[in-house]
Every structure is written in C-alpha cells, then in structure tokens.
C-alpha cells in the first residue's frame, strides 16, 4: 500500500518490479514461517527442512538486497544515469519503504537463526 501523491503525480511500489517481487517474497516467507511454526512438532528431525530453510533465507536476502538497491537510488539518485533522488519530493513514500526494508532485514536475521537451528536440531533425524 506504499504510495504518495504530490502535485498530481503518484508514486507507488508497483512502479518498480523489484518492489513487487520484494512484497511477494515477504508474503511467501511469512507464509512459510507460519506453516513451519504451526507444524513444528511434526517437522522436527526432517532432513529436508534445513534445505528449505536455506532457500527461504536466500530468497529473503535477495529480495531485501534488490529492494535496498532501488531504495538507495531513490534516496540519493544516480547522476551518471540521470536518475533523480525522488525521496526529496516523496518523503513519506521513502520513509515507509525504509521501514519495510528494516523489517525485512529483521526477518532475514530471524529466518537465519531458524535455519541454523534446523541444521542442529535437539532430536535426532528420523530414518
């Protein structure tokens, strides 16, 4: 829902494909986290769990890095490419994006911790 209008010109997150992918990836990672939290007792000791956890951590990292790169260009611009810093004009839009990036980084840290815990479970793997 990140959008801001100023002087009849609207900016929103759907203007950049990387932000759309960022939102979709965060939804996917949230759904995965909720499902594994609900079924944690059934999943303990499953050998494939760590591999899927690694995949989710890598997806979260890639989405956060991509959105952060675009956010950096929006914040400071790029004179060589002729891209202007839109955050000077659309401050609220950029502030909401910065909060989303910070929360996504926190999710990356949480998922990374969960991935480490799935690698070394307390109960041995079932064969």
Strand order of the largest sheet: 1-2
Number of strands: 2
Compressed to H and E, one letter per element, the order equals EEHHHH
Tally the helices: what do you get? 4
- Described by the principal axes of the CA atoms, the overall outline is elongated
How far apart the termini lie comes to 46 Å
Secondary-structure-derived class: mainly alpha
Taken together, the total number of domains comes to 1
Q: Averaging pLDDT over every residue, what do you get?
A: 77
- Oligomeric form of this entry? single chain
Q: What percent of the residues sit in helical stretches (DSSP H or I)?
A: 55-70%
Task: Enumerate the spans where pLDDT stays under 50 for 5 or more consecutive residues.
Answer: none
Radius of gyration: 18 Å
Strand content: 5-15%
Short description:
The chain has 127 residues and is mainly α. It is built from 4 helices and 2 strands; from the N terminus they run E-E-H-H-H-H.
Explain how this protein is built.
The chain is mostly helical and about 130 residues long. It has one domain (about 15-120). The protein has helices at about 15-40, 40-45, 50-75, 90-120, and strands spanning about 5, 10. Strands 1-2 form a two-stranded antiparallel ribbon.
């Amino acid at each position: 829902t990140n959008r801001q209008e100023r002087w009849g010109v609207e900016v929103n997150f759907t203007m950049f494909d990387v932000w759309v992918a960022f939102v979709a990836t965060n939804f996917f990672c949230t759904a995965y986290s909720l499902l594994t939290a609900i079924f944690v007792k059934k999943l303990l000791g499953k050998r494939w769990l760590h591999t899927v956890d690694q995949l989710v951590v890598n997806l979260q990292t890639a989405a956060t890095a991509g959105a952060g790169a675009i956010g950096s260009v929006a914040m400071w611009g790029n004179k060589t490419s002729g891209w202007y810093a839109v955050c000077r004009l659309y401050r609220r839009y950029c502030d909401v994006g910065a909060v989303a990036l910070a929360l996504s980084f926190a999710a990356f840290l949480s998922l990374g911790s969960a991935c480490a815990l799935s690698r070394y479970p307390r109960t041995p793997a079932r064969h």
